[in-house]
Amino acid sequence: MTDTNTFELPGHAQRVLDIVDQIPSGRVSTYGLIAECLHARTGSGSARLVGQVMSRYGGASPWWRVVRADGTLPRQLRPDALAHYDDEATALVWRNPTKVDLDRAIWDPLTDA
DNA sequence: GTTATGACTATGG
DNA sequence: GCCATAGCCATAA
User: What is the 3-state secondary structure of A44-89?
Assistant: First the structure.
């Protein structure tokens, strides 16, 4: 096929970005949850892989809506992500406003898509 | 082919 | 709560 205006990312990368793009504003998902959805589709996938894809190709996607399993983020991204959470009114932990309140903001691509 | 690395997670002390 | 370890899988060298 001759797609002239389409950059072909690695297959799994395209799927990861597709899922991330579906996360609604004000909600978040986790690397593991996305990995589970990815594994359900392709038969392969891991949280580590999602992180790998995000670091490489996440620039054009709402990367701040993807957090760790405990609601925290990598140190380098924390400040930028918090700014977005302020815009989207994402629920944060009261005692620890550097961390997302997963009980309120979690979004599961498998069950709540 | 092997090894090292990474925006991860679960488990055990 | 924190730290160390094992499992995970694509990429780079």
Answer: CCCHHHHHHHHHHHHHHCCHHHEECCCCCCCCCCHHHHHHHHHHHC
